[in-house]
Amino acid sequence: MDTLRSLVGEPEPFLTTTWRRRARLLRPPVPSAPPVTLADVDAALASGLLRRPYLELVSRGKNLEPGEYTTARTVGDQVFGGYADHAEVLRRLASGATLLMRNIEHWHPGAAALTARLGGELGRRVEAFLFLTPPGGQGLGSHRDDADVFVLQLHGSKRWRVHAIPEDGHWRIGYEPDPGPVELESTTSAGEVFYIPRGAPHSAVGHADGLSVHLSLTVRQPGTADLRAALARHLDDGLRLPPRPVDRAELHRAATELLDHHRRRLAGLSPEDLCAAVEAVPEPEDGSETGSGSDIGDASLSPDSARTVADLAAALRSGANGA
Predict the structure, then answer these.
(1) What is the C-alpha separation between 87 and 46, in angstroms, rounded?
(2) Which element (helix H / strand E) includes 315?
(3) C-alpha dihedral sign at 265, 269, 271, 272
(4) What DSSP string describes 245-261?
(5) SS3 state at 240
(6) Each residue's pLDDT tens digit in the chain (323 positions)?
(7) Which helix (H) or strand (E) holds 200?
(8) Residue 129 host element (H or E)
(9) Whole-angstrom distance, CA of residue 121 vs CA of residue 1
(10) Which of 41, 3, 32 is nearest to 290 (CA)?
(11) Among residues 86, 318, 102, 85, which one has the least CA distance to residue 211?
(12) Range list of β-strands (E), 209-316
């Protein structure tokens, strides 16, 4: 479990005393190189290909209107909307909004390799969400996730507040207006890891020392919807039916073949097989394990004139040091 070890230290004490139980601030003895850099974010925003829902801008629990930070592009003779407007994203970020980049493992090689390795070790599907928050900014209000979360603080720092999980186990995902007593309040700095158990209400605010960037690795637990989907895939595997039976006799033959095929497939399926199917995770793919490029921006620029995330981070850091 080398990947888990790089996040929490020795895995066994963490799994027996912390996992699925309580929030905890972790300081890996040998912090790993950041899997994603500010330069990677700038490259994605400037590529012209990043599109909603892969990015969202939020402030104090409310989503900004997509038209405020996206633009349309013409491909051939068709117009498609929702593409990131690099300059507008930076402008909103400098004004206090949080940039949320969803499922970056879909396009970032380092994040893809990291989620695949961790998922393989835990036997669960792992996703990666990147958050960029300006000083004093708060993207999401107190909410619950249907996943265990490892927060990797990549840049700057952030103040976290985590509330207790209900003892009766009854809770719903999403925003929580009444999160209950605070269980842990802590600040994460670059290189540290913050673990939040599934179902624990939590919120975070960017620290005054500059731009905060963290990567949330969400460890998904399979549910009944996953069982249904896995069963449907298993039953239909190898099934070949005519797309459009043209008369009653052909429709009856197709129905008979469908039922016979499903009975054969179902006869050899056990609950253990079905659970194993939903718990399967993809094999790690070859690819870069760390970000690329420089995170050094131009501190002489003001936040309003920054042209890259790295420039904005440098400007905010310079402003905090001069305050």
Answers:
(1) 9
(2) helix 309-322
(3) negative
(4) --SHHHHHHHHHHHHHH
(5) coil
(6) 899 999 999 999 999 999 999 999 999 888 778 999 999 999 999 999 999 999 999 988 889 999 999 999 999 999 999 999 999 999 999 999 999 999 999 999 999 999 999 999 998 889 999 999 999 998 888 899 889 999 999 999 999 999 998 877 778 888 888 888 999 999 999 999 999 999 999 999 998 889 999 999 999 877 788 889 889 999 999 998 888 877 889 899 999 999 999 999 999 899 999 888 877 654 544 444 455 555 666 666 667 767 788 888 888 877 777 66
(7) none
(8) strand 125-133
(9) 6
(10) 32
(11) 318
(12) 212-220
Helix axes 271-279, 224-236, angle to 10 degrees: 110
Half-sphere exposure of 51 toward its Cβ, with a 13 Å CA cutoff? Answer: 9
Q: Cα–Cα distance between 2 and 322 in angstroms, integer?
A: 41
Instruction: Look at the block and give the residue holding tokens 């407007």.
Output: 85
> What does the block give as tokens for 3?
């990947």
Q: How far apart are CA 137 and CA 158, in angstroms?
A: 10
Structure token digits, residue 267: 């006869």
DSSP 32-96: PPPSS-HHHHHHHHHTS--BTTSEEEEETTEEPPGGGTEEEEEETTEEEEEEE-HHHHHHHHHTT
What is the rounded distance in angstroms from the CA atom of residue 267 to the CA atom of residue 263?
6
Specify which residues 186 forms β-bridges with: 160
Block residue for tokens 């593409």:
83
Quote the tokens at residue 150: 């490892």
Structure tokens at 225: 């919807």
Whether a cis peptide bond, with omega within 30° of 0, leads into 53 is yes
Say if residues 134 and 66 touch (Cβ distance below 8 Å): no
Confirm if 121 and 150 have CB atoms less than 8 A apart: no
